[in-house]
Design a protein that fits this description.
The longest helix has 17 residues, at 2-18. The relative contact order is 0.10. α2 (22-37) crosses α3 (45-56). It is built from 9 helices and 19 strands. The strands form 2 sheets. The protein has a 17-stranded mixed sheet that branches. Strands 1-2 form a two-stranded parallel sheet. By secondary structure, the chain is α+β, with helices and mostly antiparallel strands.
Length: 488
């Protein structure tokens, strides 16, 4: 009788969920993830795109692979492993309501994923011709306009002579223009162009004849041996973010279940951050349980170039600007002044609950980076290039998830390392432990390791966290983090 009562309660809960409209459902999930991450800077564009896709094409849990379920961004590795072990032991799910029998899935988890999954015995069509893909694909066009009614001093109308010689006034108006055109077919094919003008940047005045920033990509995913190919702008994520992690990632939060990152080795770039992406080409090859991602990128970055007064041919970079703004004369002068080059490979062995990865990445500039030395930054990177090598792992056994990464920078032999544990004591209690040790002189161009600081550098710490769900309304997240910064 109790079992039938639970089924009835779940039925009415699901009926209420289905009654919600599409936008509300997706917005609630995005807000849930954003609140858990507690990171205002994270870009949620890709998350919106993924959930929109799965809403239109629910994931069949009976045939989904580990990485497919990870793309939902709503489940932990322990919950995914719990589901796959259940299917392996008892056979395919007969009904969506069978999810309630999973040990580490509670009602809230089921409600979160329900609109984006399905359960049936039908096989998804794996191989689709180009003609059918073009016919069944979806074209999207986004246009956004924002303005600020009360302008800052920089927007004052001044004579052209003042505007040409001053760094106080902006070259453009206070409006922000954003547009994105994209064609996609499932998660297998994506071609798009994104453009943006920030407030204060010129648009159709002076020498400017369009947007300040353009991004374009072509992306294919789904082959047996050629698993994915990226051209144009794309992202690469490796391990736990110590070696290379383009794009933003969740940082330390009060939710202990989010201490672990799930890397997406290769994905298209559709955002407007003008720095944290790669530009060039990447390919992900697969054979049985092995995968090899290789990539190359050449793109420009904003920087201040200094020429030696005695040797005019000797130039170096004194600072790198990551704001993406090109409003004043000085900001415009720094635009695209430095060339960044990145080449790397990531070899991975994956067998559902076990992952081992080995990566090597060359990162370099066409000019030497030599910023002014102060006591607090004397161990920061200086030079033209470095090679970072790393080893990462992830292992799930029943209710325990072990993960970590070790990385080394070649320019000075410095190390960064982190080791973590996630343990689900039952469906209502989760515990996490993370130890990290990042040398004061460790450096990689793009990183996103678990840390208290803003960079994967100069930090040691031990994190202990608990998440306790009392019922469907009340829960408690609590953690203790003992950390120190060896240098200033």
């Amino acid at each position: 009788m109790l079992r039938y009562s639970i089924l009835i309660i779940l039925f009415f809960s699901f009926q209420n969920l289905w009654a919600q409209d599409r936008n509300t459902i997706i917005q609630q999930r995005v807000e849930f993830i954003a609140e858990q991450s507690e990171n205002e800077e994270i870009d949620l564009t890709n998350l919106f795109d993924d959930l929109n896709y799965f809403y239109d094409h629910p994931l069949n849990l009976n045939s989904a692979k580990y990485e497919d379920i990870q793309d939902l961004n709503l489940l932990t590795d322990l919950q995914i492993n719990n589901l796959l072990n259940h299917i392996s032991q008892f056979g395919k799910l007969l009904s969506i309501y069978e999810l309630q029998t999973l040990k580490y899935w509670d009602l809230i988890t089921i409600q979160l994923v329900l609109p984006f999954v399905r359960v049936d015995d039908k096989l998804d069509q794996l191989h689709v011709g180009l003609k059918e893909a073009l016919k069944q694909g979806k074209f999207e066009a986004y246009f956004r306009y924002q303005t600020t009614p009360e302008n800052k001093k920089g927007y004052n109308d001044v004579p052209d002579s003042v505007l040409a010689s001053s760094n106080t006034y902006y070259q453009g108006n206070a409006d922000r223009y954003y547009t994105r055109l994209r064609y996609s077919y499932r998660t297998n094919l994506s071609v798009g162009v994104t453009a943006e003008k920030d407030p204060g940047e010129a648009f159709l005045n002076g020498s400017k004849k369009g947007f300040d920033f353009y991004s374009a990509h072509a992306f294919y995913k789904g082959g047996k041996y050629i698993k994915s190919v990226a051209l144009g702008d794309y992202q690469v994520q490796i391990g736990q973010g110590l070696n290379l992690w383009s794009g933003y990632a969740f940082q330390k939060t009060a939710d202990p279940s989010l201490v672990k990152k799930s890397a997406n080795s290769l994905k298209p770039y559709t955002s407007v951050d003008e720095n944290r992406f790669l530009r060039g080409a990447g390919v992900d090859l697969g054979y049985k349980n092995f995968s090899l991602t290789s990539f190359a990128s050449i793109k420009n970055a904003d920087a201040t170039i200094v020429t030696d007064s005695l040797l005019e041919e000797l130039e170096f970079v004194s600072s790198i600007n990551l704001t993406g703004f090109h409003r004043t004369n000085s900001e415009i002068a720094r635009k695209n002044a430095l060339q960044e080059r990145i080449i790397g490979s990531n070899l991975r062995y994956t067998k559902r609950n076990l992952h081992i990865g080995l990566a090597g990445v060359y990162q370099g500039y066409n000019q030497a980076y030599s910023k002014t030395i102060y006591p607090y930054n004397q161990f920061d990177f200086r030079g033209k290039s470095t090679v970072t090598t790393s080893l990462d792992y992830n292992y799930v056994f029943q209710n325990i998830n072990l993960f970590g990464e070790v990385s080394r920078a070649s320019h000075n032999g410095s190390w960064a390392q982190m080791y973590g544990l996630l343990m689900a004591l039952d469906s209502k209690v989760t515990m996490s432990v993370v130890y990290r040790d990042y040398a004061k002189d460790y450096y990689s161009f793009y990183n996103a390791g678990f840390s208290e600081g803003s960079n994967t550098q100069n930090e040691k710490g031990l994190f202990l966290g608990w998440k306790i769900k009392f019922n469907n309304v009340f829960s408690v997240n609590t953690y203790m983090d003992y950390f120190s910064f060896p240098w200033l």
